[in-house]
Amino acid sequence: MKKAKSVIASGAFDTPVGDEKPGPALPGKAYEFTLQARAGDRLTVTTMFGQSNDLFYAPDDAGIALFENGAPISGDMTGRFHLWDAGTEVNEEPGFGPNQAPRQAAPNTGHSERNPVRRIEDVRDGFSYPAVEQVIRVTITPRTSVIVTN
Known about the structure:
The protein is an all-beta fold. It has a domain at about 40-140. It has strands spanning about 40-45, 45-50, 55-60, 65, 65-70, 70, 75, 80-85, 120, 140. The strands form four sheets. A four-stranded antiparallel β-sheet has the order 2-3-8-9, with no helix packed on it.
């Protein structure tokens, strides 16, 4: 990602707030990170739907514009996120599949597939998935800084 011309910065979040080591953000937990942005910057965040084979939450391809009319955006951004299927592993029933992260013996143990990345509502696998807002919440809180130099 860092080599892509349109990417200014990239990083990873893996330790829930208040925890001392990386791990899943179980119910009631959260990940938090800080970034610096200017008008025209966009944010893309991806996080796995853990009770799946290869599903993840992310906004559309363009990401989230961090400024509107020159002012930083603020508030709940969950509605801008979708559940996506990476298309790399055959889907199993959410929360029950033996090849899903919480239950698999080792990474990449499920049956492989080669499908394009697509929104879960465009996938016909016969399973039901929870609404995005039932699983994650994404909030942006702008902070302003004043820098005084001599």
